[in-house]
Amino acid sequence: MINKKVANVREALHDLEDNMTIMLGGFGLCGIPENSIAELVSKNVKGLTCISNNAGVDDFGLGLLLQKHQIKKMISSYVGENAEFERQMLSGELEVELTPQGTLAEKCRAAQVGIPAFYTPAGYGTEVAEGKEVRVFNGKPHILENAFDADFAIVKAWKGDEAGNLIFKGTARNFNACMAGAARITIAEVEELVPAGELDPNQIHIPGIFVKRIFQGEKYEKRIEQKTVRQKN
Fold first, then answer.
1. What is the 3-class SS of 176-189, one letter each residue?
2. How many domains does the chain have?
3. Is 160 within a domain?
4. What is the predicted pLDDT for the residue at 148?
5. pLDDT confidence bin for 230, thresholds 50/70/90
6. Cα separation of 221 and 180, whole Å?
7. CA–CA distance, 65 with 80 (Å, rounded to integer)
8. According to the UniProt entry, where is the signal peptide (predicted)?
9. pTM exceeding 0.90
10. Which domain holds residue 187?
């Protein structure tokens, strides 16, 4: 069994360079690869095209990369929690490609399983469909969407083993699961890393064949994007 373990985040991302296209798992601030994002900030790589459901918040997640103008283009579904993102988009500093959420997930999954393109009715009749092939299935127009073509997929899991098998916890499974294996190199950071063979095969969400490198992260903040609590009576 191939050992995918690397010593730390620096080793995991050593060959990620300027102007690459990277997928980043997570939904809001849930299940984001915190250690890897911090390393990208530290490496000061520029001109990145980032594929992520959203762009973090102003002072956390991908918002940290936006602060340093390291992102050239965002491909996202929802971007409403980040004032700096809004400013850069409206000023023309940041190229933005908004994609229906289901389409975004399927473009990841298609890349993961080797499907080059697929038809979907989502987005037909809107700006999303401009310039794309349209075919009619069962009387309903569908647009052709290409699978993503990314250099790196960076995902975060609750637990993994040294062979790269991953288990996600709760809603942190989100986009992490469909992004794993959807790029040329998949890097997984995990809260707990165990020797190969220790995970229950019936509990594994992503098999190690999809993962190139894995490391144990540290000091996770796991911030809550919007915290709402009821007042005490």
1. HHHHCCCEEEEEEE
2. 1
3. yes
4. 98
5. confident
6. 22
7. 16
8. none
9. yes
10. 9-116+148-216
